[in-house]
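Page 42, continued from yesterday. The earlier attempt failed because a stray header line got pasted into the input along with the sequence. Redoing it now with the clean sequence only.
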Amino acid sequence: MILHIVFGQSSATNLKAAFELDPNLAGDVLCFEDDLAVGPLFILDTPDGRRARKEWWAVMQAAGPAMAGTQAALAVDAAPGTDAEPVYEDIDPVRALKGRLREEEELTVWIWAGQNAADVCGYYWLVSQLDRFSGRIHLIYLNNLPFLNEKNAVFYPTHLHQILPKEFLKAKKLAREVSLAEFELDGDEWRRLMNENAGVRLLEGGKKIRGEAASFYDKDLLHAATPEFQKANKVIAQVTGKFKYPVMDQYLNWRLKELVREEKLEGRGELKTMKDYEVKLPGSPAPEADAAEQATS
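This time it went through. Structure tokens are written below.
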């Protein structure tokens, strides 16, 4: 039996549709949602590391709920009326996977990865923990490979959700066993990424990941801002439309709010979702201010 692993729910939809076209491809699908291309990774293989990432997600989402499936620790509130600190229950999202592999000796794992930083980082994270199951772990990496779109034109997808269900039948031929050398080398690469603990991780080609500061996209957000107030979601849409590899709107929304707090941009409205506030470059009067001055002159 095959257990398919993808990163992000959008990647699972077309893969599941392909099962109807080829029963030999069918199997369970396990989806990990956390985008490891952004945010802290330091000691993520420990309870403290998972807790730190959970707390970062809470800050980034303005203390909202963490992303489903994130490699994080879940906070359990202290009992009402007590001064006790909240207790954190550590959730290791790979523990159940390893347990299933021990119990089902015939189970093989296919890790699907598109040519993007989130999938590649997810692969590194997983493979660093599955070395004891060598011989049963396979990788399908769509690295600069041509596929056909709805119009039968050739294109080079960066994400699995861009591939038609029928094209997964061609992609399955790429499945190959993760070698012992890869378990060692790619496990070392994951430990490098954890120790580097960059704010943003970018794919440079192949499986090479480059780390950058959390503020890496700030210059693009500032460039998209104007002297007049614009909705935050409009600014973010202008930025994401120029990227070859998509960046999470949530992440850019967090960076935009940080720019307002740092007074590099002026904000108007409540700094929550992208639709709740507006931003503009500092030092230039807003249109309302101009109208008020003209009325009093």
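Notes: Residues 2-192 form a domain with the Rossmann fold fold (CATH 3.40.50).
Reminder to self: strip header lines before submitting.
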